[in-house]
Amino acid sequence: MARKIRIGIDVGGTFTDAIALDNDTYEIIGMKKVHTTHEAKEGVTKGVIDILNLLLKEIKCNADDVVFIAHGTTQATNALLEGDVADIGVIGMGSGIGTAKIKADTDVGNVSLEDDKAIKTSYRFLNTANGIVREEVENILKDFEAEGRHVIVVSEAFSVDDPSHEKEVAAMAAQNDMIVTATHELSKLYGLRARTKTAVINASILPKMMQTASMTEQAVKDAKVKAPLMIMRSDGGVMQVEEVKKRPILTVLSGPAAGVAGALMYEKISDGIFLEVGGTSTDISAIQNGRVITKYSKIGGHNTYVSSLDIHTIGIGGGSMVRFKNQNIIDVGPRSSHIAGLPYACFADPKELKGSKVVSVTTPKDKTTDFLALETPSGNRYAVTLTCAANRLGYMPKGDYARGNEESVKTAFEILAEAFGKNPEKIAQDIVNTAVGKVVPAVEEFIKEYNLSQNYLILTGGGGGASSVVPAVADKMKLKYKIAENAPVIATIGAALAMVRDSVERTIINPTQEDILKIRNEAEQAVIKAGAAPSTVEVTIDIDTAKNIVKAVAVGTTDLSAKASMGEVLTDEELEKTVRDSFNQLDNCRVEKVFGSSTLHAFHIEARKKSVIPFLKQKINMLCVIDCSGIIKLSIENADFYEFKGRSKSMLEKQIEDHMKFDESGKTSPMIYLLINGKIADLSGLDSLEQISSLADIELQRLGEEDHYLAVIKKR
């Protein structure tokens, strides 16, 4: 029987990588790399087409064997950065006493981008008091046609409640061979100005993205691959290429998303900080209870309704150059040796480095001339980089992608030591400390903002430069760390393994049970339509009472990936050992199994946090949920847990009520997780017992009368 293949393609600034994985074991079958084709007529799409054909040829598989193919794209981001955008005609619509406000909110003017570029708009208003008057719409469209505007945005107040007018005008524009974005297609939230701006940005890149998406889709078809092409979204999920032709804005800022998808699906991170380290920068993101943390993104400084990963990008990478003055290290980064066109000293031929002298260099993009380099007797120059310093300090294990030549590293720092009059280790340590000093605050900010517990937090490094940064950051913060397996291609692996994801948001004041179920079902159906197997879909509901926003996030896997092996099934003893090993930084750790099913197991942990002052040790009380292959799915401190039988929820409701918090601001619902038939249902984002009970009903329908489930409840 032929093996089934998953293909991931990642488009980077310098290289485009492709990888083929076995669908069942995630074994790497083949990898290819080509230079990213920025200058080609077809743009980076040409590189995607080329590498797909090269990869299929290398692994010698039948196109029918490919069950999943996805790629990360920089096209939307590049189009906005480079100002390769269409001029937009905006049709604002509304009626009644609020007409002046509607006009102000929908007439957004020119939308500024980077480097003084802008999306140029032309505005018309359509009064809908008497419905849609066809002649008025036709006249507006003729005006836009005369102005050379063939891309239209249709924006009406309250279209999230009734989109019929937007749909009608959009259909008329489409009949006139215009490209259209209606605001209700992108967001169900009120906030007319943000919704209109989001639509304008989306529409401005539609012509470019429709063209490139069609080219890539055709390349997949030409290769006789029947699996639908999926594209990475900025929130870490994937969507079908047809959706890209409607909502390309969802791919903006998706560059680091594939790496985080790899951390989730390949490294199976449940809680932690993921640092993807390239040659120039480090992208830092947080994962909590097996889910990526997202937020509304800003594009060109404008608030939008686009959810993207919450990522901090720091200008420190493996190739970061060192600045010096008077024999002292004064800075590291953000300029990398790649921009300077200089190779790393640690990868040089050690014989060539003999007799080199320390020189100051500049780069094509800098005015300063104080970057540290070594000039060989033959006149060749090599940059002293963060990777060189990390090698000197022993952070690179054998076989690491960034491990340099030991003799070259030794020679380079002996030359620096003689020139600076300092110990070579001291120079290397100064370089690393300076770089780490820029990364640590971003990690600390994530820990504080999302209340991540440092009792079991792990830093995971991905990218080719991971060992240049992550071990030193972990040392500084006294945290555990690991370098991801196949770290240099973790983003490409992430594209191959990414899950189908979609979200639906609505502005609802005092949402009813019916409102919540409706939005939940809408999100679930959206991911199923996008290719997720219904049995794999999990939906999380979050209600922001301050902003009156109800959000449903649905995540699922494709049909065949749902069958992928979870790995070896571990015994209870092996599972307990895995839990102990995960929390080995705790003292007097007592672990007890409190719940078990065929796929999920829960362990209660009592311990004390290690401290240099023994009598100040902090008592730790934790519940850890782990799957049968040893992947921790949930870790939560100071929570209570209760095992129940069957579908009855009266006792569950009583415990939830007992864990409600009452104060001057009112009643606050607890955090709630239900372990049911191999899934963890997160009900923590709900606002009332009625809402929690209605969604618990849906989850409990999967149980038989004799089945048991575990409720994990924590008072906020």
What do these coordinates show?
With 716 residues, this protein is an alpha+beta fold. It has 4 domains: 1-82 and 206-255, ATPase, nucleotide binding domain (Nucleotidyltransferase, domain 5, 2-Layer Sandwich); 85-204, PrpR receptor domain-like (Rossmann fold), CATH 3.40.50.10660; 265-491, Nucleotidyltransferase, domain 5 (2-Layer Sandwich); 572-637.
Chain-wise SSE layout:
Elements lengths: L4 E7 L3 E8 L5 E8 L8 H16 L6 E7 L2 H8 L5 E7 L4 H8 L4 E2 L5 E2 L1 E7 L6 H13 L4 E6 L7 H12 L3 E4 L9 H13 L1 H17 L6 E4 L5 E3 H4 L12 H9 L6 E6 L4 E7 L2 E2 L1 E6 L2 E8 L1 E4 L5 E6 L2 E9 H4 L9 H4 L3 E5 L9 E5 L5 E3 L2 H7 L13 H15 L3 H26 L8 E5 L3 H12 L2 E4 L6 H8 L2 E8 L5 H17 L8 E7 L4 E8 L15 H11 L3 E11 L3 E10 L8 E10 L4 E6 L2 E6 L4 H9 L2 E3 L2 E3 L2 E6 L2 E4 L6 H12 L7 E7 L2
Parallel strand pairs: 1-4, 4-11, 5-8, 5-9, 9-10, 13-24, 24-25
Antiparallel strand pairs: 1-2, 2-3, 6-7, 11-12, 13-14, 14-15, 14-18, 16-17, 19-20, 21-22, 22-23, 26-28, 27-28, 29-30, 30-31, 31-32, 33-38, 34-35, 36-37, 36-38
